[in-house]
Amino acid sequence: MFSWLAGLIFLMGFFAHIGLSARFVLTQRSLGYKVPRDTLVWNSFYGIGLATLALWGFMGIVDGFVFAPIAPLITTPAILALSQVTIRRNLIFEQLRSKEPALRHRIEWSLVALFSLLGMLMIEVPWSWAVGLYGPTYWWLELILVGLLTLFFYLVGRRRGSLTLPAWAFCAFVGVAQYFVRKFKNSAIMPNDILAINTALAVSDQYTYSIDPRAVVGVVVVLAGFCVLSLLHPSWSVVEGDSARGHVGKDAGCGLAAAALCAALVLVPNYMEVFQVQIMYWYSINFYEKQGFLPTFIAVWQDMPIHKPEDYTTEDAERATAELSQSYDQTIGASAERQQAEEQFAETKPSVIVVMNESFSDLSIFDNLRSGYEGPQFFKSLDDVLWRGKLFVDVHGGGTCNSEFEFLTGNSLGYIGAGKYPYSTFDLTPVDSIVHQLSGQGYDTWAIHPNYASNWNRNKVYPALGFDDFVDIDDFGGFPERNIDGTKKMTTPTGVPIFHSGVSDQATYEYILELLKADAPQFVFDVTMQNHGSYNQNNIPEDKLTHYYPTGTYEDPRFAETPERLNEYLSCIEESDRALEWFVGQLRELDRPVVLVFFGDHQPSMTPDYNDAWYQNEDDLTHTQRIYHADYLVWANYDVAGQAQDGDTRDTSVDSLSGEVLSAIGAPLTNYQKAQCAVGTQILATNLNGYLGADGTWYTPEQDGPYHEVYDKMALVEYLNFAEQL
Fold first, then answer.
1. What are the backbone dihedrals phi and psi of residue 693, each rounded to the nearest 5 degrees, phi first?
2. Quick one: which of 36, 40, 358, 665 could link to 531 by a disulfide (CB 3.0–4.6 Å)?
3. pLDDT at 642
4. Dihedral angle of Cα 458, 459, 463, 464, to the nearest 10 degrees
């Protein structure tokens, strides 16, 4: 209702804009003046803005007005006022030409400064109300950066507002993009997100785009900046006898100097220390809010290179690798269980099926969601697993490719550094992977992902990592058409069933079962799609829709829309659980040995709401790690030599999982994997936030805890294994 009411108010504003503009044009015409065409073009953008807001309102995608019903009543008159200033720009020019040159210059540069301020607000207001709470260093830094960018376009553009529009477009785009990234992923834009823009565009149709009162205020700020630019023109700002032509060289030189200074500020060595900008990657959005988008984004960008461990040398790294791998050989590798597993592996060569299930996690860890939720029941009750537990990861709400990277290569982002997506940044051809290993053992290697092959550069990365074949959406028949109501059809054009966001989990499992008919042992890495966000698509069949309503979430504004989104997500997990049960049942019947590794890549974006509301007064690291883990299990349809298969529970991290699995089933290991397994007796899990010691305590890399020495040694080993190979 509120969205429709907002649409009506904006529509009335649109017609008011048309009426007021037409009245002014006709009045001027009656006085013998003609409103220039370029002024009408400038003015038309306000009508476009109001019409767009009205359309969104009637489409039901203007939300949140239940908390701020007065917002459209304030913003619509503000937009109308801006439009009336712009349509009178030539009258304003006439008035300004009569002023003294010194006053004209002051007005000109005041408008440039005002636009710079508005540009900063255009970046910040759409997604954050905290712009007025920044420390003065961050506030001035962002304002100066925007001001220098504005000066460059203004001066090189010969003091024309129309040629300064790229600065306006940049600020508006950043603000809008960050608004939607926060809305969909509850995170901030990172530099590597730009490298992954194709992937973002490919999945963009799975989200419902809506705006709230904060975004509407952002629209007003964007149009205010547009209004200021409409008033900048050399016809009044250039003093007689001092023509724009005569100023071309000087203005261009000053504009280039502004660009150079802007670049210098961006490239300042030790940027974070100089400007006291901080970033903690486990919840980047919090630091973006405290320090401003541009200062924090630049800090993350400067932090992208892989940093060498302190006092690193190749010789030290090789020595550490040898020591740790030898430790494995003398302990785990020398055990009777490992010897039995090695003999069995050499004889049987079991197929290894890895299912990285999109967004799969057990949210019952959040106090049973204060609604009696017990989690995915088959997943939790399967009792003959080799082992299961929490799987600590480095992404939340998105960034699937990083969980893939860590599992396939065994390298941890905790050592590589935050803010990086190796799939998008590095050539992984020289990097070791479990794919190369099993291929060398005679395995056929398959990657499955029922979406575009180009997402996260998988069409390039998978061959580099050693996969023989890549099954993408085209192999499942392509994407289905939309139904008339906008929802996806329940099958692909070739009849493959879909659920929620794409091809169903079970459809990918059926494909795997066909691959298992081959004589050679198979390694299959299946990245599922059905559980992908967003979770307000309203496309879950009623008989499969869950109904859990956490206590108090309707009353608490932090949980806006959360019960509906939560149940759409939980319905996806229930469907994944049913499909897993079916798949395990099929694998039990196979007359060939198969190992199944099943894990989720990250939690959905909504979990910080519960974490922050329900778990307070605990240390930051413990609090954060609750949202940076998914769940996993390792199961086999045969008796694995040396393994009890009695449901053992152990927590680990995604980078260690592949090596642990190969070690358990008796497959040959690299020295790097042996080093990982040896370290795993003291450090159970590692991610960007810290590491979990064998004593059950989380430590940050800077802490001088009981496992600090072995952590630092593993940092040397990983740098040698990954960074030196690039």
1. -80, 165
2. 358
3. 94
4. -60
